[in-house]
Specification:
CATH superfamily: SGNH hydrolase
Oligomer: single chain
Helix content: 40-55%
Largest sheet: 5 strands, parallel
Number of helices: 6
Shape: globular
Distance between the termini: 13 Å
Order of helices and strands: EHEHEHHEHEH
Number of domains: 1
C-alpha cells in the first residue's frame, strides 16, 4: 500500500510513529492483515508534486492500493481548482493503470477562502472519485477540524493536527480503506 500525501500524512510536528499512517500500520498488524505500508508523504507537497513523483513510486513499490492525500496545500497556495482536479485525476488514472485500487482523502478549507471556493474545493475530490471509480473519504479531518474541541486538536499553527487527532483521522479512513484490502 502506498500513501502519497502531504504534512497531514508525513507526521509534521508529531513524534514519529504517532500519525495516522503509523497507526494504520499498527492496525493492519493487529488485524493480521499482511500489508506493507509505504508512506511517501512529504510536508508541503501539492497535487503537482505528487503527480510528478507518482510514476516512479508506482514502478518502485508496485502497490495494490494507493491512498492519495493531497490538495490541501494547493488550496493554501491559491492554486487553480481545475489544476488540482486534473492532477488528482491523472494520479488516480496512473495508479489504476498500474493495477492499484485508489482511495482519495478529501480536504476542506477554512471559511475565510469564501463559501463558493470552499464548496468547489471540497466537491472536486468527490468529482474525481466518482469519475474514476475511486474510493473517497470526503473529509480527512472530519471530527477534528469541525468538532467542538477543534482548537485543542491542532498544533499552534492551527493547520496541523496534534497526535491526539490522528486516531480520529484513521477512523475516517479505515472504513473506506478496509474494503479495498481484499485479496
Amino acid at each position: 500500500m502506498l500513501i502519497v500525501g502531504d504534512s497531514l500524512s508525513a507526521e509534521y510536528g508529531l513524534p514519529r510513529g504517532s500519525g495516522w499512517v503509523a497507526l494504520l500500520t499498527r492496525r493492519l498488524a493487529e488485524e493480521k492483515l499482511a500489508w506493507r505500508v509505504v508512506n511517501a508523504s512529504i510536508s508541503g507537497d501539492t497535487t503537482s508534486g505528487g503527480r510528478t513523483r507518482l510514476p516512479a513510486l508506482l514502478r518502485e513499490h508496485q502497490p495494490r492500493v494507493v491512498v492519495i492525500e493531497l490538495g490541501g496545500n494547493d488550496a493554501l497556495r491559491g492554486l487553480p481548482l481545475a489544476m488540482t482536479q486534473a492532477n488528482l485525476t491523472a494520479m488516480t488514472q496512473a495508479a489504476k493503470a498500474a493495477g492499484a485500487r485508489v482511495l482519495i482523502a478529501g480536504m476542506q478549507v477554512p471559511p475565510n477562502y469564501g463559501r463558493q471556493y470552499g464548496e468547489d474545493f471540497a466537491r472536486l475530490f468527490a468529482t474525481v472519485a466518482k469519475a474514476e471509480g475511486a474510493a473517497l473519504v470526503p473529509f480527512l479531518l472530519a471530527g477534528v477540524a469541525d468538532g467542538p474541541d477543534a482548537e485543542r486538536l491542532f498544533q499552534p499553527d492551527r493547520i496541523h493536527p496534534t497526535a491526539e487527532a490522528h486516531p480520529r483521522m484513521l477512523a475516517n479512513v479505515w472504513p473506506v480503506l478496509r474494503p479495498l484490502l481484499r485479496s
